[in-house]
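User: Predict the complex with nickel (II) ion.
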Amino acid sequence: MLVHLPQVLGPAELDQLRGLLDHAGDAWIDGRATAGHQGAAVKFNQQIDEHAEVARSCQSIVASALERNPLFISAALPNSLYPPMFNRYGVGMGFGAHVDGGVRLHPHHGTKFRTDLSATLFLSDPATYDGGDLQIEDTYGTHSAKLPAGDMVLYPSTSLHQVTPVTRGVRLACFTWVQSLVADDGERTLLFQLDNAVQRLNESGADETARRTLTGLYHNLLRKWTQI
Ligand code: NI
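Assistant: Here is the predicted structure with nickel (II) ion placed in the model:
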C-alpha cells in the first residue's frame, strides 16, 4: 500500500531544514557511501554523511514531526524509525531501479534493523526542478510521486523503485525506513483500513456497542500480528 502523508513538515520546519542542508558544506558526500552492491551500480546522488553533526539536527526535525503525525502512526505502526537521511540530486543525477536492502545496521546502535516501509519526504518545491520523479512498482502497476515540499510518500520496502534523472534544478529530499510492529504489508493495510473506518464511525457518533466491538477487533488483530 502506498500512502501519501500531506504536510508532514510545516513552512517553518521546512525553512529550518533547508537552511541547515544548504549550509552543510562538506557533510555532503557521494550517495554510494551507504549503498549496497545492487544500489551502488545505479545510485548517482549526494547525501549528508549520516555521522555528521548536521545530520543529527536534521534527523530530529523529521523524527519529531513523524512522532506527532497520526496518519503516519496509523499507516506505519512504527516499532522504530531509521535515522532519516538527506539527499540531493543535481542535473543528470538519478537512482535506477532497485529494491532497498531488507536488513540494515542501525548507524547509532549497530543493531539490526528490518526495513518494512520506505519513506520519501520531499523538500524541494516541484516547480523548481524537472525529472526526479519517484517511481514505485507495486502489484497494481507503476506509481509516480513528485509531491509538494513537506509531503511524504510511504511504501512497502519490498517495492522496486527508482528516481528518474533530474533534468533541471535540484531535488532535495529526505528518506527513511520504518521497522513496523506488523511486518506484513497486507496485514498492516487491513489494520489501517479498519482504523480509518473506526475513526469515521467515532466522528459520526455511530452505535457505541458496534464501535466498541470494532475497536476491540482492531486491538486483538494488532496483538495477533505484532512482532516486537
Ligand atoms: Ni531505495
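The helical segments are 11-22, 37-40, 53-67, 70-76, 185-204, 208-225.
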